[in-house]
Amino acid sequence: MRSEFAWSLLLAALITLGTGARAGETGASPADGTFSGQSAALFTAPAPTEARPAAPAITYSNQWLDSLPAAEGGDDFACLAEALYFEARGERVRGQFAVAEVILNRVDSALYPDTVCGVVHQGTGKRYRCQFTYTCDGQKEIIREQRAYSRVAKIARLMLDGAGRDLTAGATHYHTNAVSPRWARSFARTATIGAHHFYRQPGSQTKG
To answer: Any idea what the Cα angle at residue 76 is, between residues 158 and 159, rounded to 5°?
Structure first.
């Protein structure tokens, strides 16, 4: 049975050679003892499935962000992009990524809601008792700087797609260096980036 199968393969290869497979197409000719073209595939293992390309390395610059395609997504994308715009658009790119890390670290923490929108809008409606000031400062959220929004939207997309969180060592909180909130005295400071200090809340282990 095995012999019949081998012969059928050989016969198929010979038919292929006789119907127009040209020597030299794959860099080998029949004269050197190898088959060329389609016939070679009959005697070689199939190529492994091509791995997905790795995500591009992050470059913390506006020029790099401008080179990326426009970003889009669903509710969590919209909530993260909005939060980055109102909370961090005046920061350098590294600082904007850092704020995104805080929001996603909260999503992963057992102490906070399970979605980006849930985290961003936790406490919204309670004046100055919300988690992100822009959601409860009494001012209407209007995006007027479209270029700045386009850039933070790309950051939001990258972070939701799994970009590394390497800037804040698991931070769940931040504040500007212009204030000194009481909670900061008992939280571990993990980083200072731009105008923000970053902290990790005690007990903020990940869900699961």
So the answer is: 15
Which CATH number does the domain housing residue 94 bear? 1.10.10.2520
The answer to whether the beta carbons of residues 196 and 99 sit under 8 Å apart is yes
Residue numbers of the domain that contains 123: 62-200
| Any domain includes 205 | no
Location of structure tokens 């400062």: 137
Q: DSSP assignment, residue 73?
A: -
CB atoms inside a 10 Å sphere around CB 28: 15
**Segment 161-205, tens digit of pLDDT:** 999 999 999 999 999 999 988 999 999 999 999 999 999 999 877
The SS3 assignment for 189 reads strand
- Give the DSSP letter of residue 206: B
